[in-house]
Amino acid sequence: MRLTPVIRDLIKFTTPLIVITMTMAAVSGFSLGILSIARAYTTGEGLWTKGQKDAVYFLELYADTGDPGHFRRFKHALAIPLADRTARFALEADPIDIQTARTGLLEGGNHPDDLQGMILLFRYFRWYGHVADAVGHWRATDALLDGLAILGEQIRTSFETGQASPERSARHREELFRLNARLTPLATAFSGSLGMAGRAIARVLIVVNIVVALLLIVLAVLRIRRPLLQRQQFEDELLTEKEAAQTTLAALGEAVVRTDAAGRVEYMNAQAERLLGWSSAHAVGVRLDTIMRLVDPKTGEETDFVDRSLQGEGGLTTALQKLVRPGGPPAIVSVVAAPIMVSDTRSGSVVVLHDRSSEDAYISQLAWQAMHDELTGLPNRRALEEALALVLSDQKRHGHHALIFLDLDQFKIVNDTCGHPAGDQLLRQVTMRLKDSLRSSDCLARFGGDEFAALIAVRTPEGAMEIGERLRQAVEALQFVWEGNSFRVSASVGLVNLDIPGLGVDEAFKAADIACYMAKEHGRNCVELYRPESSQLQAHLSEMASVQSIQRALLEDRFRFHAQEIRCLPAGDGSGFGVELLLRLEGEGGEMMLPGRFIPAAERYGLMPLIDRWVVAHAFEIVARWPGGSEGAAAFFTINLSGATFRESDFIDHVLAEAARTGLDPARVYFEITETAAINDFSVAHAVIQTLRRHGFRFLLDDFGAGMSSFGYLKMLPVDFLKIDGHFVRDMRNEPTDRAIITAIVRMAAALGKQTVAEQVEDMETLALLQELGVGWAQGYAIGRPRPVPMLPPERPGAEPQIRAA
Fold first, then answer.
1. Nearest Cα residue to 204 out of 31, 66, 85, 463
2. Which of 137, 282, 474, 615 is least buried, going by the fewest C-beta atoms within 10 A?
3. From residue 406, how far is each of 124, 163, 339, 432, 531 by CA, in Å?
4. Residue 209: is it exposed, middle or buried by C-beta count within 10 angstroms (0-12/13-18/19+)?
């Protein structure tokens, strides 16, 4: 077959391009293959890590419960890293066992398509760079995985033979934690090394691809240089067509109409056909002012914009016009007109129209959304703020108004029980009830969550209370039903009359919020009016001020310690004396606040864990630098903790970290926890006490005898001291019942191997009675008053902090 010159030229021109394309494809394919192998190893490592962690997790569950199902899951999870290890052993053997390696990798959860590449990478690159590091970390886990398997069998044997016990379970858990603590950093290092290996491979491949691409680009440029020179010869001939095409292409995406010098349509794009209502076939050859009529959007009068554009007056012109369309509604459009100039002669015009209808609608929608709640359609907080500011700016003109806050009481129950769709439906129904209970002139808003607010116009303050009660009743009358579940809903309503002098927007919101809070405090489902003179309101404000003072004190480190001696009596088991570190808050004016002024607010608003962390950190520093072991030195220190802190998941870690940082002897620290806190959350308290006791800390049960269940739980609570509640100690001289209770506590403590401390020992007569009853330790003004402990480090290392006289 004889090739024509055209075909020969085509083959000659395209062959280098084909070769270049195939070369680039080959390099890219090779790069993707290498990256796929790296990804396969990363995926396999993820499965290995997950199997190891799942094995630890299910073995811990098995050790706690003895459920055989957890043991099976443990074995299944452990099989993944063990299978990967088997594959590695097969690849490291001499000779290599490929089939065993493939089987191990498959059992390790790896995809069959990835096996060949994983085997090749391991065989030929396991001695180099980050791959060698990853393999080294992998090998380091072998003994730990064996230890994990052996531990699992030991636990299973203990359950099957009936030898399981709490002590054995505790030992097994300690061993499990030890293995996991060693496995976790190795797994992390394994993962990190693989990640670095993958990134290194990617960088190398990127460089290779860039170099190859540059080489191919150079070859391509050299090859197409001749066609480019030929193209240059045609550029002058195509100049007129190019300018017209560029002008038209620049307007693509909008309605584009091109006319000739006489104003007749030469071209219309599809957008112009839709916007103007004319097809291109019918419009071509028709004057533009015939098919398009523009009027001024403000006056409604027809404009001569089209005529001036067609005549080329003013060059490039723009305007905002209203387009009147036959058979369709008017549309606001932005019009841009430009003449087409060729050799300084106008050969036509291009008119571009941009339909602003959707933009205007979108802007209107955004404006609405900025001021309204999407779920209920009500105005939002911002809209209510603007309305409230307008009312407060001139109350004489706008009349008397009141602001109402409404908070649903059972919303969380509905959300948690039936899910968020149910909660959304409840909010819509509540919105309808509230709107029906208000006038159209009132402004009802939703702030988010289950909070609503209303700005209402009233004639008298009493009328505001009536409307608030009406809203409360409207919510209470709602019987909400969702998927067969029925809920009764109520609302707490707070109200503030806006005739209070000097009331601003923020102050009004705060007052209504406080009134709503007081309604919740009074049992919910009620209406409360903001009264600045209310004692309950003042108490609430005082409590909030205390919260702010606590937060500032934590930031500014203004908590202080006072030390009070705990003396050993003849019946006590010990030497020297103890010291209780009592917390004080130094006010901004330098005054010292006792715990009774700030602890209740801290407990109510969840600040006790933060305070206790401060106490642990600073008390440990004091104990660590206070000498011990010598005659006259403090034998131990007691530190008070709250029950809320015991529920912090990382509190034990915090205590151990601070002990390591300060280097203190844990045997010198006794944590005090009230019996009420211990009994109310017994399982948590028991677990924390057991864990910290294993690290050497001791515990003292404070206010013993104040609770109703302490005697029943005491034998299961591993504390070392019982501090007898001061209520029994203060009046024991005159109350035989108190002496009998103290006697019973002392005998019971002795039977359980625990020591007793009597607090609030105020006089020597009480001290003598306590000695007669066999109390081991005493604390109170008869022993010594609390004295400040300096918070600064001592002047010389190891010096005992000096306690100043109060």
1. 31
2. 282
3. 72, 61, 64, 14, 17
4. middle
Q: How far apart are CA 694 and CA 534, in angstroms?
A: 52
* CA distances (Å), origin 495, targets 7, 142, 264, 430, 457: 91, 69, 70, 18, 13
580: nearest Cα among 601, 559, 566: 566
pLDDT at 762 (0 to 100)? 92
Q: Which amino acid is at 159?
A: F
In angstroms, rounded to a whole number, what is the distance separating the alpha carbons of residues 579 and 637?
5
CA-based nearest residue to 779, from 764, 766, 763, 760? 760
pLDDT greater at residue 552 or residue 805: 552
Buried b (16+ CB within 10 A) or exposed e, 232-256: eeeeeeeeeeeebeebbeebeebbb
Please give the helix or strand (H or E) that residue 735 lies within, else none: none
CA distances in angstroms from 23 to 26, 203, 223, listed in the order given: 5, 20, 16
Q: Hey, which of 43-52, 158-167, 458-467 has the most confident mean pLDDT?
A: 458-467
Contact criterion met (CB below 8 Å) for 526 and 517:
no
User: How many Cβ atoms are within 10 Å of 485's Cβ, its own excluded?
Assistant: 11
What are the backbone dihedrals phi and psi of residue 158, each rounded to the nearest 5 degrees, phi first? -65, -35
d(CA 193, CA 134): 5
CB atoms within 10 A of CB 606: 10
Beta strands in 569-620 (DSSP E): 577-586, 592-593
Q: What is the mean pLDDT of residues 707-732?
A: 79
* Dihedral over alpha carbons 171, 175, 180, 182 (to 10 degrees): 140
Distance from C-alpha of 401 to C-alpha of 106, rounded to nearest angstrom: 75
Sign of CA dihedral 792, 795, 800, 801: negative
Maximum average pLDDT range among 100-109, 299-308, 685-694: 685-694
